[in-house]
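Fill in residues.
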């Protein structure tokens, strides 16, 4: 997935990439933002590791590769970006979990992306 935030204060709300066992195990984000200034441009990825009140802010600097678990262990959000912000995201899938998720989808056990 390629994401482009237009720099008008757009961000992305706190979420989990794989809340319901769809097969995604590891989220990999590669940043393409040359000369990024977090103080001026914002756009930090904020991760809220499960089981702690702390969070980690990651600057979307050029040529940075970030990997984290895709499940509920790592809720995250994108803070408002005030410059055009680019990122490429790919996921590593667990084949067995993905097959189970597909089967549940095909048999109607999943409605609108959520488990019954």
């Amino acid at each position: 997935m390629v994401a482009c935030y237009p720099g008008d204060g757009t961000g992305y709300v706190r979420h989990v990439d794989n809340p319901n066992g769809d097969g995604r195990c590891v989220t990999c984000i590669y940043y393409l933002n040359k000369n990024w200034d977090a103080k001026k441009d914002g756009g930090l990825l904020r991760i809220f590791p499960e089981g702690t009140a702390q969070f980690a802010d990651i600057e979307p600097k050029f040529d940075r590769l970030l990997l984290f678990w895709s499940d509920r262990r790592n809720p995250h959000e994108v803070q408002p970006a005030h410059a055009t912000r680019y990122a490429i995201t790919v996921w590593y899938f667990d084949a067995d979990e993905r097959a189970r998720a597909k089967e549940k989808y095909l048999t109607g056990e999943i409605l609108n992306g959520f488990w019954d």
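The CA atoms of residues 5 and 85 lie 5 Å apart.
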